[in-house]
Amino acid sequence: MDVKERQVTESFRRRSVQCIAPGGLHRMSYVEWGEPGNPRVLVCVHGLTRCARDFDFLAQELSARYRVVCPDVPGRGESDWLRNPMEYAMPTYLGDMVTLIARTGAQSVHWVGTSMGGLIGMTLASLPDSPITRLVLNDVGPVVTAASLARIGTYLGKAPVFPSFEAAEQFVRVVAAPFGPHSDAQWRFLTEHVVRGEADGSYRFRYDPAIAVPFNAELPHEDVELWKVYDAIRCPTLVMRGERSDLLTRETAAQMTERGPRAKSVEIPGIGHAPTLMNKDQIGVVREFLLAD
């Protein structure tokens, strides 16, 4: 049965770990798939406004080989919102992920990161003695375009209230149109884990609107260049690019194959920012790279 037509089995465990930022303690929630004692750990980290459940299909596919750990980055999903919005930034995320990896007990991990999750992984992988030994960057790299940041800024933090789940799904279909074609069931899945129902029957996004505060502090946006970070990576790296991506250009992806870790590059046809890793072809690309000798 094709991945996009089957239902994900509810075989994960929901857990949390206590983390700290300058503003105080906060709880980071995560879901975990596979055998709890498996020393082979795969960490999957989502994009800016998304959540851990984005990786359900990938995690289910790889859970026989890995203990798959998928966090809700603070301010998203089931994790706590931070007291100081300016702490929605890389230092906080890096500290939280190091805490999470320590919780698993693993000495090293493989990493799949979509967009923001890829930037976190790229930064952590660039550090001396990094625990990341194999890295997948899903539609993100060392140059983040101003055009993509401007597009994200049109909806980030607006905190709309939807009168029904159907209205919320329609909004997701619009802002996530670059994800490419998906079935009705897939769009429902992509919506149901990022919104919550209210007592009056309305729906809101699960993420803290204040994540927009540090994002908007950079206005007007310019291209973000992180080549120094990328060039410091030493582990095998795969970069996946949506053919129509406005965040990761084809030129940047090509340069990524020639410098730093000299990433393997795969382009996904008909997709913008970013591949959702729900369908068999995309999962196969990730699986083949992660499990390569």
Structure characterization notes:
By secondary structure, the protein is of the alpha/beta class. The chain has helices spanning about 55-60, 90-105, 115-125, 145-155, 165-175, 185-190, 210-215, 225-230, 250-255, 280-290; strands spanning about 15-20, 25-35, 40-45, 65-70, 110-115, 130-140, 145, 195, 205, 225, 235-240, 265-270. The strands form 3 sheets. It has an 8-stranded mixed β-sheet, sandwiched between helices. Strands 7-10 form a two-stranded antiparallel ribbon. Strand 5, helix 3 (about 115-125) and strand 6 (about 130-140) form a beta-alpha-beta unit. Helix 5 (about 165-175) packs across helix 6. About 45% of the residues are buried.
Q: How far is the N terminus from the C terminus?
A: 28 Å
Low-confidence stretches: 1-6
Shape verdict: globular
Helix content: 25-40%
Order of helical and strand elements: EEEHEHEHEEHHHEEHEHEHEH
Structural class: alpha/beta
Number of E-type strands: 12
Strand proportion, as a percent range, falls in: 15-25%
So how many helices? 10
* Mean pLDDT rating: 95
Taking strands numbered 1, 2, ... along the chain, how are they ordered across the largest sheet?
A: 1-2-4-3-5-6-11-12
Mind summarizing the main beta sheet?
8 strands, mixed
User: What is the rounded Rg?
Assistant: 18 Å
Oligomerization category of the chains in this entry: single chain
Provide key terms for this protein.
alpha/beta; 10 helices; eight-stranded mixed β-sheet; 293 residues; disordered N terminus
Q: Secondary-structure blueprint of this entry?
A:
Elements: E1 13-21, E2 24-33, E3 41-45, H1 56-62, E4 67-71, H2 90-104, E5 109-114, H3 116-125, E6 132-138, E7 143-144, H4 146-153, H5 165-175, H6 184-192, E8 195-197, E9 203-205, H7 212-216, E10 224-225, H8 227-231, E11 237-242, H9 250-256, E12 264-268, H10 280-290
Parallel strand pairs: 3-4, 3-5, 5-6, 6-11, 11-12
Antiparallel strand pairs: 1-2, 2-4, 7-10, 8-9
Helix pairs in contact: 5-6
